[in-house]
Design goal:
This protein has about 150 residues and is α/β, with parallel strands linked by helices. The chain has four helices and five strands; from the N terminus they run H-E-H-E-H-E-H-E-E. Helix 2 links the parallel strand 1 and strand 2. The longest helix has 19 residues.
């Protein structure tokens, strides 16, 4: 199951039940809202506290299509945030939902990593994992297809 809380505070109480038995948590922040990166720290703390220790965390930076003058979060802030001791992760996936950029790569990356971990743990379902998708907001862009995970 995939739950989207849109990062709003009103969903904070509900999300506690979503973390239970989660295999992964995907955090998305927006380049045009500095508050989205600031609040990301709180959502990460929630996940760290409430999600199972084995739950993988993935990060997505959205709205990479914006011109520089509309961005309020820049690469140096992003790099500093993710290099910090609280996160210790590599750079996030970079996407534009509006332009359908990087979406498939982010989904493929999450699915591939989760499948790989499941294989290591011996809990993966038999057969291939295939990810296919399209952007319902942009029907003019053909669906992207990917091959099977290793």
């Amino acid at each position: 199951q995939l739950w989207d809380t849109a990062g709003t505070e009103r969903f904070r109480a509900m999300t506690k039940s979503y973390y239970h038995n989660a295999d992964a948590v995907v955090f998305v922040f927006s380049l045009d809202k500095s508050a989205s990166l600031v609040s990301l720290k709180y959502w990460i703390d929630d996940a760290r506290t409430l999600a199972p220790p084995k739950a993988q965390r993935f990060y997505v930076c959205n709205k990479i299509d914006l011109p520089d003058e509309e961005q309020v979060i820049y690469d140096n802030e992003i790099n500093g945030f993710f290099a910090g001791p609280d996160i210790g992760q590599s750079a996030p996936y970079r996407t534009s939902a509006k332009e359908n950029l990087g979406i498939q790569e982010a989904i493929d990356g999450v699915v591939t990593q989760l499948h790989s971990l499941a294989c290591q743990e011996g809990t993966a379902a038999t057969g291939a994992v295939r990810v296919e998708g399209s952007n319902p907001l942009r029907p003019d862009i053909p669906p992207q297809k990917s091959g099977c995970c290793p």
